[in-house]
Backbone:
């Protein structure tokens, strides 16, 4: 079925939402719900379809070409198609890298536009923000070096007007600029305050991947980002004050992140003790899977 469905996609236009939406969702789940052997073949089939990749290029570009909806919580058919497009491309990036699959057509994206889609949200629905962050995680994990993706439109003018140390720092973080990094971190922090479960999971995962990327590129910048004082206020905003309030997956993952990068001004021995006490008093068998997994990672980090 991958052949006819992917060929059908390649014959569509981005405005053919009623047809494209189920097609892209089928391709996405075909990649994720199959055996590793079949998965490798599925990736090869999709990446060999030039017309499909050209269609995906046009779909993604619609993210910043169309005007924002009047109701941010409403997921229109156009937004739903964008979500499917970003998630499918993120998956293709992941599996192309895993299997080193041959690429017949590259995707070209403006990094500034992608970052601005999160930084300047303009009433974007939650699911669309989550989908774009999945894509960001994929490119960060691959160090912007995927053979499937060409990054264009880096803003080099800003670095040219700054003092030499800033220019050297930007060069080390390329293709990201220092100002872009701090802007995206602030935006991710603001998104966490909404306390939307799906959004919180995506934001924390994106923060984890971003700091890991920065630590490889420039440890000073990574540690500076991880130790921002605003993180501490953010943590206590997330805590609902209820029983076992520390045992929330996103809170545990944030605590683990700060422990990993030794942000002692964000998480103190007192908070660590509180988490251990709450974990000791909890019925571990009744904890949700996401909480158990996050608690396991936290304890390993401690």
Residues:
């Amino acid at each position: 079925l991958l052949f006819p469905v992917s060929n059908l996609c390649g014959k569509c236009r981005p405005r053919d939402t009623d047809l494209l939406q189920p097609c892209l969702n089928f391709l996405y789940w075909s990649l994720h719900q199959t055996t590793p052997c079949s998965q490798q073949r599925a990736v090869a089939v999709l990446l060999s379809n030039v017309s499909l990749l050209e269609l995906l290029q046009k779909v993604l570009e619609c993210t910043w070409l169309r005007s924002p909806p009047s109701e941010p919580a409403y997921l229109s058919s156009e937004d739903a198609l964008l979500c499917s497009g970003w998630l499918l491309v993120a998956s293709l990036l992941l599996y192309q890298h895993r299997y080193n699959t041959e690429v017949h057509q590259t995707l070209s994206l403006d990094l500034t536009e992608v970052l601005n889609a999160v930084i300047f949200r303009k009433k974007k629905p939650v699911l669309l923000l989550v989908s774009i962050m999945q894509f960001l995680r994929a490119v960060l994990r691959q160090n912007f070096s995927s053979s499937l993706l060409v990054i264009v439109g880096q803003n080099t003018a800003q670095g040219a007007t700054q003092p030499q140390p800033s220019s050297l720092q930007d060069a080390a973080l390329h293709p990201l600029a220092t100002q872009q990094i701090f802007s995206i971190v602030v935006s991710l922090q603001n998104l966490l305050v909404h306390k939307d479960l799906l959004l919180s999971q995506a934001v924390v995962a994106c923060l984890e991947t971003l700091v890991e990327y920065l630590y490889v590129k420039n440890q000073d910048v990574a540690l500076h980002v991880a130790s921002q004082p605003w993180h501490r206020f953010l943590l206590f905003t997330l805590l609902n004050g209820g029983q076992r309030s520390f045992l929330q997956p996103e809170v545990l993952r944030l605590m683990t992140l700060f422990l990993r990068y030794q942000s002692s001004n964000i998480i103190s021995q007192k908070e660590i003790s509180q988490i251990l006490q709450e974990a000791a008093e909890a019925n571990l068998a009744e904890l949700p899977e996401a909480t158990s997994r996050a608690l396991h990672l936290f304890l390993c980090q401690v």
Q: What stands out?
A: Confidence is low (pLDDT under 50) at residues 155-165. The longest strand covers residues 107-110. Residues 126 and 199 are 6 Å apart (CA to CA).
